[in-house]
Amino acid sequence: MLEIITLLKASRTMTSMRRAMGRPSGRWVSVDMRRRAAEVREAERGRSARRRRRRRELESKSSRRRPLKLQEKDPIFISIALNERNEFGMFINVYVFMNVIEPLYGFYGFNRADTPSKTPENLLRSKTLISFSMDGMNDFETQLQEFFTEVKDLIEKGDKGSAIDLLQANYIAVADQIHAGDRGIEQAAILDIIAMGYMSLDDQKLAGRLLEMLNDIVGGIHNDTPLLGSVLLHMGSMHASLGKFEDAMLYYGRGIEILERLFGKHNQCLVASLLGLAKVFTRTGKASRAIDIYHRTIKILEKSGGAENEDIIIPLFGLGNVLISEGRTEDAKTSFCRMLSIYKNLYGSKDGRVGMAMCSLAHCLCAKGDIEEAIHLYREGLQIITDSEYKALDDGLLEKMKVDLAELLHVAGRDHEGRQILEECLLIMEKHKGSEHPSLVSHFLNLATSYSRSKNFVESERLLRTSLRIMIKTVGPEDQSITVPMLHLAVTLYHLKRDEEAEELALKVVYIRENAFGKHSLPVGEALDCLVSIQTRLDRDAGKVLALLKRVLSIQERELGYESEEAMTTLKKVIFYLDKTGKKEEKLPLQKRLSVLRTKYKQKVAV
């Protein structure tokens, strides 16, 4: 049996994993640690030999593997990894160990308050428990649980150094086993936890390499092997987080096949994998398949817990969002109304979760075009959340909903009301983060945009210069992120008729973005388009302005499509400058193209 190294065994001197994974080493392994590692390896070799002998004996008795018998009263190792949006858009991650619901809030960077409920009893879970007959497996499960919990606790406490040392020490132990030829479920389970640890530390590169090792190992493990379904579920979640959606689909799919064979197609233990797969389908544009899976998940949960089951909230939210993206806003409204009804029946009309559900429904109504009703529902929902103290005032999700409401108010022409909300967000953030914190930049930009809409460009300039100063202080004068407030400032100066200053800033934005994204990227096209407007009013050389416009058109055609509205607008400008510079031979074919595009666009609008 492979022994999992604890923090005391790992100490804080492990560097072997850094070398093995191609990372620079900074500390030496102590003599005691090397001796201890050698002892662990020697003991494990003996255990591995015994396991291989037992395996050969079992195989000699039967030429065909029989599936393990399953019971519903004994402990399960990792039964569910739920990586799905909670009812209001934030990801939650729940891992179940040894029949103990262990919510790992924060393990991928999310907070405890982002979950739909504050008690483990209210979390989505599997009611099915598996008994493993493999000799010594229970001890191994216990070690895995302790390892997982220790890593999680260290990360939550901010002790990343100790967490890394613990992960490194266990990687060394499991890597020795893999190199010695042991490539079974024990090695896969430990690599799985190590990979999750590095994901939580935001080391996606190293986590990706560990997943590559896992890919090779699980490919050779039979589907009837204990714990494999849980490992596959985690692998699907991590691949999705890394943007490797095809791989995520494969692992979710294989895990679902295993669970369906063991428990049938309507068992609640399928829910976590189905939710993960639905999310992947949503992110890859396979909306119809995602909708089907959400409906299937809801039916499973209704069968096991009833129509008012709180667990249904998560798939209802996912379903509603997919339906909105498909333009089926009336169907989406049904999902969000059901969410609101469930929370009201369970917790009463003044509970914070009810307020959150109201804001979700308001978002749907906005997509449907019911602006005034959406504004009313947003205000009511936010008031309930505040009164119930369900979210802290500086909570990021609460802040986002306030900004959404402010945007709606601006769309409705109620700029002053919207600006009041934006100013409130800024004051709260200044109080909790300080007046120079980078997180204030987005609030300065929002307020500046609001003032620009109201033609108060002087106040807009002040806010933009403040945000630009904070960004330069934070990331430096050449980082691409400073170009956002810088380009906004260039536009504001243009409106203030300070064209020379505006041109200087726009040129700098083009230079920084070319270095960061490439000369033919969409961000560069955006900056060039702004520069063209400024240089046109400055009456710069028409030939040079035409060259810039052709660059903008080329970028828009490649990135947005030849028939995009943006390309059509730029095409008009190109034709104007071709006429101005006397290039009539180039102008005629572009005029014909513009005429065709106008006809198509009018037909599209009419439909």
How would you characterize this protein structure?
- With 607 residues, the protein is mainly α.
- The chain has 3 domains: 7-60 and 70-326, Alpha Horseshoe (Serine Threonine Protein Phosphatase 5, Tetratricopeptide repeat); 448-539, Serine Threonine Protein Phosphatase 5, Tetratricopeptide repeat; 541-607.
- It is built from 25 helices and 3 strands.
- It has a 3-stranded antiparallel sheet.
- Mean pLDDT is 80; it is low at 11-37 and 57-135.
Second-tier CATH architecture of the largest domain: Alpha Horseshoe
CATH topology of the largest domain: Serine Threonine Protein Phosphatase 5, Tetratricopeptide repeat
CATH superfamily of the largest domain: Tetratricopeptide repeat domain
Portion in helices: 55-70%
Could you give a short description of this structure?
With 607 residues, this protein is mainly alpha-helical. It contains 25 helices and three strands. The longest helix is centred in the first third of the chain and has 31 residues.
Write the SSE topology.
Layout: H1 7-10, H2 16-20, H3 31-61, E1 81-85, E2 91-97, E3 100-103, H4 137-156, H5 160-179, H6 185-200, H7 204-218, H8 228-241, H9 245-263, H10 271-283, H11 287-305, H12 313-325, H13 329-347, H14 352-368, H15 371-388, H16 396-411, H17 415-433, H18 441-453, H19 457-475, H20 483-495, H21 499-517, H22 522-537, H23 542-560, H24 565-580, H25 584-606
Antiparallel strand pairs: 1-2, 2-3
Helix pairs in contact: 3-5, 4-5, 4-6, 5-6, 6-7, 6-8, 7-8, 8-9, 8-10, 9-10, 10-11, 11-12, 12-13, 12-14, 13-14, 14-15, 15-16, 16-17, 17-18, 18-19, 19-20, 20-21, 21-22, 22-23, 23-24, 24-25
